[in-house]
Amino acid sequence: MDDGLGSIAISAHHDRAAIPDLVATIRSWAQSHGVDVWQQADEPQRPLGDADLVVALGGDGTMLRAVAAIDGAPVPILGVNLGQLGYLTEIDPSELAAALDRVVAAPDEGGWHLDERLMLDAVACRGDTERGRWRALNEAVVEKSESGQTVRLFARIDGEPFTSYAADGLIVATPTGSTAYSLSARGPVVSPRHRALLLTPVSPHMLFDRTLVLDPSEVVEVVVGDRPAALAVDGQVVIGLSAGDVVRCTPSTATARFVRFGPYHFHQILKRKFGLTDR
User: Fold this and answer.
1) Correct CATH for 7-112+261-273 of 3.10.20.30, 3.40.50.10330, 1.20.1560.10, 3.40.1390.10
2) What pTM does this model have?
3) Interhelix angle for 96-103 vs 19-32, to 10°?
4) What is the pLDDT along the chain (279 residues), one digit of tens a residue?
5) What is the three-class DSSP state of 101?
6) For 64, 184, 239, 251, which has the most beta carbons within 10 A of its beta carbon?
């Protein structure tokens, strides 16, 4: 790396049988190169954000957890794919040692670059009191917390009223998140190179059911109506919400940084993921 690779942190999906061998490969490589290495489970008091490189062993879920654990620090992540074809991981397990050899060199020499992704800041407020702040790579979702009922959510954009939704929830997604929950709610697929915010209703009980694709400078606020709701960030419920609570979503000043070898062809990954053909 440009300033040298002094430390590696490992974030792993512990249910995968290949994990012990891959961790051993990383530790052996690190020892021979004089690089400090630790595993997140081994040293929970040592944050991933202290490392020069995070190696994520698993699938896209492991990548999301690694991004969350880094907590906005400008640390690159190398994703090793142990699951199905993913959007975020970069290499297969057999390529791990060779990939580390390349990453330890400068980008031009090693033939790698950083793929920087827009992230989202979500702030939950009650009146003038901030109740919590979270960062998302995929999405923030204000959703119903009681089964069998919709929730009424009012959307404001740049402080101006837009409309009230009767729905199961409202998704505020990044382009990276356009292929996650937003896609399952019939939202558009957006290239991760694009900078935008997507506002997608979940199972809306109303005529207007389209996604809004907004400029990232536009602030999205979701106001909870008369039924309780919850805020989920990248698939994890983080806080309960009551009537009048507001969730404010803006682009984060931090980005997620993924190590890539050669061009990243998002449309080709999408093609393989959905079994699309050339004909």
Assistant:
1) 3.40.50.10330
2) 0.92
3) 40
4) 556 799 999 999 877 889 999 999 999 999 999 999 999 866 567 889 999 999 999 999 999 999 999 999 999 999 999 977 788 999 999 999 999 999 999 899 999 999 999 999 999 999 999 999 999 999 999 999 988 789 999 999 999 999 999 999 999 999 999 999 999 999 999 999 999 999 999 999 988 899 999 999 999 999 999 899 999 999 999 999 999 999 999 999 999 999 999 877 888 888 888 888 877
5) helix
6) 64
Gap between the Cα atoms of 80 and 94, Å rounded = 9
Q: Which one-letter DSSP state was computed for residue 228?
A: -
Is residue 205 helix, strand or coil? Answer: coil
Q: Residues 52, 60, 234, 245: which is the catalytic one?
A: 60
Cβ contact 218:157 at 8 Å:
yes
Residue 266 CB neighbours (<10 A): 18
Encoded tokens for 107: 């980008």
Instruction: For residue 60, indicate whether it is catalytic.
Output: yes
Rounded Cα distance, 87 and 269, in Å: 7
